[in-house]
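Hi, can you check this record?
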Amino acid sequence: MSGAGRITAMVLTVCCLSLAAGYALKLQCTQIPWDGSQYGRLCYNDLQALFEVRGIDEGVFPYVEGDLVDGELTGGAIEYPVLTGVFMWATGALAKDWKSYLSVSALFLAPFGLLTAWLALKMAGRRALLFAAAPAVVLYAFHNWDLLVVAAVALGMWLWTKGRPGAAGVAFGLGAALKLYPLFFLAPLVMERLVGRDKKGAAATAGAGLGTLVAVNLPFALANFDGWWATYEFHRLRVADFNSIYTWGFESVALDPSRLNLVTAVLTLASFVAAIVWGLRRARTSGCYPFVGVAGAMLAAFMLWSKVHSPQYALWILLFFVLLEVHIGWWVAYALADLAVYVGIFRWFYDFSRTQDIEAWTFAKGMLVAGVWGRAALLAGLFVVFLRARPAVGVEPATGEVSQARSNLDARVALQ
């Protein structure tokens, strides 16, 4: 076996082991009563928790009959964008009950984890182990449906390295129909086209991404606008969750959706603008817009300022540890902070299920708060680190495009 073959086998084998460990962790929840024990055993997962709550058990097709009533999603309305909702429904059709739904979902989610590892390998070689061997894959592969969107982002990044920004835009558009955040990556992708004096390419890339997102959502919006919009209205009305920095230090803001939405929107938008402008500054000296670094910084900012920071969001950021030359210490520190959040939140929930005292300051609660603020500090640092980092070897657009961008820069300098 060649060296490349050994690396491929190693990465995919490690990813398989991580996925298997993740399944074993969550499988505990099919063998115990859900009386709080699911938190104590650290096996809680949204897959089983939402099986009956979102009508998956009854085969209710999502969105088309749904609505938001008194802040509650009803009749097939789901808190996730349409492609995730359809995946939930389709896998539910193959499950007998809430226990088997975990296994069916894992069976269909696992290939997306392997696809992500394989695409990361194609882009960055052995650095793909930073995804395949990440504790987050064990904790969250089958916690929610986020492997779908992570694979869509990986596909978009891989297409970009192949010099196909329009196709990358399509992948990000599909990703945004799974979970919203890949939509943000269209901005730096378009900026890269503009820096390269490719206005038609910029327009085509934006059109491909936004057009894909609209095309996927439009049938649901036309069939039942209220059921489709309920997803976004539900989030607009939400207060901060226990995994958010606002809950642990800004309580007055955390419980007021209007103020909270304004604060998060302003902070996130300001961070996005800062990242995009920094990218322009880097482009003046390098000749290429640092698309991956800016996209990673935007994601870090979004996760930092979000009022809802579900633990499985850790899967989102893993790709950027792979694609950018970031010191492994950041990866280790983030994994430890995330582990503190995971253990802290669920062991605290377990404590509460036994004592019914949510105010008590337990060891688990202290671990959660330390993890939340430690993770926030790391995200703030990664915002800067990602912007300054070089792409990993192999993570760049097609050679011809790099050369063209540098030629354009040289031409502008000569004219000045």
Summary: The CA atoms of residues 49 and 405 lie 50 Å apart. DSSP finds 19 helices and two strands in the chain. The chain has one domain: 3-410. The beta strands are 67-69, 72-74.
